[in-house]
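Protocol step 4 of 5: obtain the predicted structure for the target chain.
Materials: sequence only (see below). No template structures provided, no constraints applied. The aim of this step is simply to have a reference model before the mutagenesis design in step 5. Sequence pasted as it appears in the construct record:
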Amino acid sequence: MTDKVQAKQDLEYCSIELSKYQNLSRSGLTRNELLAIDGIMIKLKERIKNLRVALYV
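Step 4 output (structure tokens):
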């Protein structure tokens, strides 16, 4: 039971963090900064996908 509660909290946190990165202005950023942000977004998307699978299976 507590695992589902924790997973839901993690899902909400990751969704909020992903939204922040998606709304971030990218003008003036270097190539390395853009790649770092993209890497973080990819990890967040994977985590969200995994949490959704774990919650709804």
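Step 4 remarks: The helical segments are 2-22, 31-56. The chain has a mean pLDDT of 95.
Proceed to step 5.
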